[in-house]
Amino acid sequence: MREPEAKKAQAEKPRFHSSSMKTRLPPFPNSWFHLAPLSEFKKDEIRSFKFLGHDIIAFKTGDDSITVMDAYCPHLGAHLGRYAKGRNNRLNNGCVECPYHHLTFDAQGT
Fold it and tell me: Which sequence spans correspond to the domains of the chain?
């Protein structure tokens, strides 16, 4: 193989973050992770979690489905899982409501 072709082939190899190239782990979490049993989620209640160094919220969107999203409002960064007084926030017509400016976000984040 000529030198330019060898460099191109080497550059096309995927990058993996691992001390051993045998494991070939991707540099980000790429799997399913257990937060809590489905039975622990109550209807119209938002649960807050600290997960992989990030704050997230989760809530039931149906009988057997859970929605997980970033815990902070994109407007000014209020925590969507808590009211200002420390109580847990609740869903409002299936939407998460910001405790400060009352912006609402559905299960798709819209």
Answer: 38-105
| Residue pointed to by tokens 């191109």 | 8
Q: What are the tens digits of pLDDT across the range 13-59?
A: 555 444 555 566 566 666 777 888 988 988 888 899 988 888 999 99
- Cα angle 98, 44, 60; round to 5: 100
What's the CATH number for 38-105? 2.102.10.10
pTM beyond 0.90: no
Place of tokens 């000014």: 76
If 0-12 CB within 10 Å is exposed, 13-18 middle and 19+ buried, where does residue 3 land? Answer: exposed
Token pair recorded at residue 58: 């989760």
Complete edge-to-edge strand list for the sheet that includes strand 66-70: 46-51, 54-60, 66-70
Q: Are strands 54-60 and 66-70 parallel, antiparallel or unpaired?
A: antiparallel
The SS3 call for residue 51 is: strand
Beta bridge pairs of residue 88: 82
